[in-house]
Design a protein that fits this description.
By secondary structure, this protein is of the alpha/beta class. It has helices at about 10-15, 20-30, 45-60, 75-85, 95-105, 160-180, 195-205, 230-245, 260-270, 285-290, 305-310, 320-325, 330-340, 390-410, and strands spanning about 5-10, 40, 60-65, 90, 120, 125-130, 135-140, 150-155, 185-190, 215-220, 225-230, 275, 300-305, 345-355, 370-375, 380-385. It binds adenosine-5'-triphosphate and magnesium ion (MG).
Length: about 425
């Protein structure tokens, strides 16, 4: 089965909105072993939408669109698709009633009539419920090119908050039902290693197997390794081999970030975490508190940016700062011990470094970061040399420090 994606919206072409829908849909599809043949981005204009539909239907059996399902005059996706399939639009009573209920709940007076545009459904279309907004999704099949071949189209709303649950819960099962020869997919998160090191290490496992494809995707926290194959048992076997290659460098099952992994480990060990952040300015605390339920293990953090705060709040001595400087292994160790004592925690992370673009020197260049972590009465410190701009360095510093605590807790690091 071939699949194409069409993202519709003037704002995408003007750069006013980043096309995150494509990324989300691509990732969900990969999970069921489907890789889109290509994706097009077109404005909310009839001719380009028709041209994109022609192109996509000539190349694929299934087409997904996002955007342009709203009630305003610029939202024309449904009308143009109905025209292409030669279908009329009829009001769907059930949708009209639920739109009215939704509007009444807002207590904003009479409902504008244009909102009812969203209850218009092409003849023969299946409706996909929108649990987070008003514009329903649609699934239509027919012969849009009038050449005897049956094509499917799935119309999704543009707002990511509405599109995502609809696609995951209703779109993906629908596409799975259309796939005749499914590809199976496995996803592994490898941490603390670069893409090229991972690729090299994988060669003995994957070379000479045309049945198996591998794709890598790097981010500041980890490298995602996607394995796909039409043979599920073979894929399973190869995935186990890859997992053996990266023991200690894979997240625990079910964890997709350092914060989730630390939360799991801290719960397991009944430990409490405190963080002291200088150059990361709260990134680690934010990542921890992004996860619901982190209050059970995360006591809190101190953003100790100025030396006075390192001294007054964390108890880092003036002499230590004088002798070694704020960006030093000694300072990082004193910060983690100080924050654990202050915030009554038995696990800790401290980060101090030079995020740039200024402030570097020959001995302490931009990108030099010291991370200190503490667990079970042991403190360890490591230095890291990160590359990139300020933002990348800060995020990489947070990741490497979180990874260091993870490794200490798993018994993979010794002082
Ligand atoms: P509505 O008009 O009711 O909000 P809609 O289905 O017509 O829904 P659009 O008007 O196309 O959707 O877009 C609505 C919002 O969704 C806009 O804020 C837009 O920036 C965002 N959006 C649209 N397409 C994408 C996309 N591909 N990626 C990320 N955001 C998008
Ligand atoms: Mg739009």
């Amino acid at each position: 089965m071939e699949l194409c994606l069409i993202c519709i919206g003037d704002e995408l072409l003007k750069g006013a909105t980043v096309n995150t829908n494509m990324a989300f849909i691509g990732e969900c599809l990969l999970g069921i072993g489907v890789i889109p043949k290509y994706s097009l981005v077109v404005p909310d204009t009839r001719q380009p939408i028709l041209a994109a539909l022609d192109h996509a239907f000539a190349n694929a059996d299934v087409v997904i669109t996002t955007g342009g399902l709203g009630p305003t005059a610029d939202d024309i996706t449904k009308e143009v698709v109905a025209e292409k399939f030669g279908r009329r639009l009829n009001e769907n009573g059930e949708i009209a009633v639920s739109l009215q209920h939704y509007w009444n709940s807002l207590k904003r007076g009479p409902m504008p009539s244009r909102l009812l545009n969203q209850s218009l459904v092409p003849d023969g279309a299946d409706v996909m419920k929108n649990s987070c907004g008003t514009a329903p999704g649609l699934h239509l099949s027919g012969d849009p090119l009038k050449n005897g071949s049956v094509k499917h189209i799935i119309l999704l709303p543009g707002p990511p908050a509405e599109m995502r649950p609809m696609f995951k819960e209703q779109g993906i099962p629908l596409i799975q039902s259309l796939v005749k020869k499914p590809l199976h997919a496995e996803l592994l998160h490898v941490v603390g290693l670069g893409e090229s090191v991972i690729e090299d290490r994988m060669i003995p496992v994957i070379a000479g197997h045309p049945n198996l494809s591998v794709a890598y995707c790097a981010s500041p926290e980890y490298v995602r390794v996607f394995l796909t194959s039409p043979d599920q048992e073979f894929l399973h076997h190869k995935t186990r081999e890859v997992m053996d290659l990266f023991k200690g460098e894979l997240f625990l099952p079910g964890c997709k970030s350092f914060a989730e992994e630390l939360l799991t480990l801290l719960k397991r060990k009944k430990s409490k975490l405190a963080v002291a952040e200088s150059c990361t300015g709260g990134i680690i605390a934010q990542r921890m508190t992004d996860i619901p339920g982190s209050s059970s293990v995360f006591n809190g953090g101190v953003v100790a940016y100025a030396n006075e705060v390192k001294t007054a709040v964390l108890g880092v001595s003036g002499e230590l700062l004088e002798e070694y400087g704020a960006v030093s292994a000694e300072c990082a160790a004193a910060m983690v011990e100080g924050v654990c004592a202050k915030l009554n925690a038995d696990a800790g992370i401290a980060v101090t470094g030079i995020a740039g673009p200024d402030g570097g020197s020959v001995h302490k260049p931009v990108g030099l970061v010291y991370a200190a972590v503490r667990f079970n009465g042991q403190t360890i410190v490591r230095d890291f040399h990160h590359r990139g701009g300020r933002e990348q360095i800060r995020h990489r510093a947070a990741s490497s420090a979180m990874n260091l605590l993870r490794r200490l807790m798993l018994g993979l690091e010794t002082p």
